[in-house]
Pentacotripeptide-repeat region of PRORP domain-containing protein
Amino acid sequence: MAADGVAPDATACTVLVGVYACRLRRFDAAYEVVGWMAANGMAPDVVTYSTLISGLCSAGRVAEALGVLDLMLEEGCQPNAHTYTPIMHAYCVSGMIHEAKELLETMMAAGFVPSTATYNVLIAGLCKAGAFKEVDTLLEESSAKRWAPDTITYSTYMDGLCKAGRVDKSFALVDKMLSEGLCPNEITLNILLDGVCHRWLAVIKLFVDMVKKGMAPNSWTFSIVVHSLCKLGKLCGALCLLRSEDFVADVVAYNTLIRHLSFLGKAYEACLVLHEVIEKGITPNDITDSLVADCLCREGKLLVALKWFSYHLQF
């Protein structure tokens, strides 16, 4: 731009900082751009500094990011939630929960109201550390601290509870969400299904209840349900679900069933399911081919496996 006689503005420079810091990890070049801006009377703004901090944090250079934060404060540039959230995330990923909580206190002491996204990052870190009581406290104090939990907040908490084996409490959060006017989404449903995958009646009940409550299941949701039923030996139930008019099956869900049939050595049943896939107009993929071939070969039906591959190669 400069070579063509066009002077870059602050927005263009900030984009360049983002490219160098966040994509190319060329931090020396990013600092040069920031220095050029200051030398040419174009003071870097909060977006410029926040972009640089985000890149540094993603590269694990948290101490350096804190130095940039100090610099922007010295320059009289006020940070915002987007400035602090990458630092919070870096702390939580590294298991530095104490530092993350101190950062939150620093933000509030300086008069900044942390955003819901910032709290969600902290909640994910607390869940990873098993500090569920602290998560409860954050949620209880949300109104007083002027932030509103969203679907991501609760889904993150549910995920942590389910991974810790506290499935019942995660279920109770669904009603709490609904009472607060939040609608659980397919991610919420998938998290809960993963949590109850060892109890097939609970899987079916949860699936039906969530659909009644307005959640829109996606293909991954159905695959989880099929996998859960198959894992518990309820293959007929999985097949009935796949054939249900309310279930728009895809190749991933069918592959899940075929994989379990193959594992059990049921080549004939796997071929019947494969025939059903083709009859429904669903195109088998490479994974389907591999699963069916493996199943047939395990039972010594090499010629049948070769015929299937020859047939499939025609399309």
Remarks:
- Residues 218-315 form a domain with the Serine Threonine Protein Phosphatase 5, Tetratricopeptide repeat fold (CATH 1.25.40.10).
